[in-house]
Amino acid sequence: MGSQLNFLSSKLSVIAVCGATGTGKSKLAIDLARQLNSEVINVDAVQLYKGLDIATNKATAEEVGGIAHHLLGCLNPVDGFYYNVHHYRRDCCRLIEFLHSQNKVPILVGGTHYYLEAVLWRDFLRISDERQDQSEFHSETDSNLLNRSWSPKLLDKLPSDPRDYYATLMNLDSESALHLHPNDTRKLQQAVLAHFAGKKADPASPKKASLSSSSRSECPRFPPPDSLIFWLDADPEVLKSRLDERVSKMVSRGLVRELDDFLTMAARSLLPDQSIVNSNGSVSEETKKAIFQLANEGLLPSVGTEHWCRGILQSIGFKEFEGYLQLSPAERESKQGRNMLDEAIEKMRTATRRYARRQVRWINNRFIRRPAAGGIPVYRIDVTPFLTASTPEMAEFLWTSSVLEPCLATLRGECNPPALSPEPFIEPKPEFPSDSSFPPPPYICASCNGRIFVNYSQFQDHLKSRTHKKRLASLKKQTNNLDLNIPLVNKSTE
To answer: Has residue 422 been placed in a domain?
Structure first.
């Protein structure tokens, strides 16, 4: 078996494993790496950072089983302000080249599908900052961690009212403005600042998609058959129960203590001039409040300009436990403190389930719902039987028979019919109308309180929705049955 797999591995450039959190992605990647004599590259944004091993669900040393892992726990958490998808793509591609030089097939695994797409398709990141892509990442910048990424001079150029960002960007770069929602002030602000800073599109990269484009990535870095994707999927209700149980296990393993320790480390790094530790060695409540206030104002390097949006602080767990972590030991023992802990645990369960749904939507909308040209084959494996096994022995049997062996058979090209078949690509609806006489985005539904859409197909779906029809019926009653069945108003871009 080993020689067959090694022979096949020489034909493959990369294998990717994706799926919702809790479906066993790491287990499959490790098992495949062992069979292929290969190595694993992490594609989980928060697992890039050191610390919070429980909160980020890093594989344990026992689970890794001696298989080499890359880009896992390799970054200082306070460096999160400087490390983004561009840096990740650069580092990951270098590792892929290195493993190829060792005659090994890299196995990419993780739930940050945004990062995965950036590596697997050359044209995913259409606009890049050349200075950011080409510069090396140095931790010497730690002394400037409390500075924002934009200079005060540039920030002073912004309109005083965020509601004016869209009009400003439309005047500066109308093509970019058409691809952003008028109410997405954070992205609009960054686009305006980027224009002020003189950041331009990389002339060597593909141009932005036209209005009639599907806006899907079209240029695989390793065109099929040199690459493939294994997608681990499960029944939503089964996965929900598994994720709820996993959160409970994380708490019993010491999640709260881990968050406390990380908060102490963050305080010492980010507030070095303050007295942050009590006589008992714990972080003072005042310091905790200061850290969370900075985070929620977007002033921490690990969170950037959006609450908890960068670095390890974006991991599920920290923001959900914010209130509880600020309590003193005595307050945590009170009835109110115990209630706050229960509420934090439930918030974490809800956030984890929501994150899992987003991960599946990305796979469907980006990897499956796309033109076949430029696509990478996606093999869906149902792990529901494995997740619902009644005993550990049965779980291991089902894993081997219904997950691992079908993947290996697919890699070997065995079985007729094949053990797994790739998911069919689904041609997406056009995001913009093909009729050039139709007004450009944004599209505004005047009947639904001016709701705004920048995607044409989403706008059309809205017009057919039950919510929109109910709104029309209500308005007709209020206006003595006047004809209000003309819901489209195109916002002026003057």
So the answer is: no
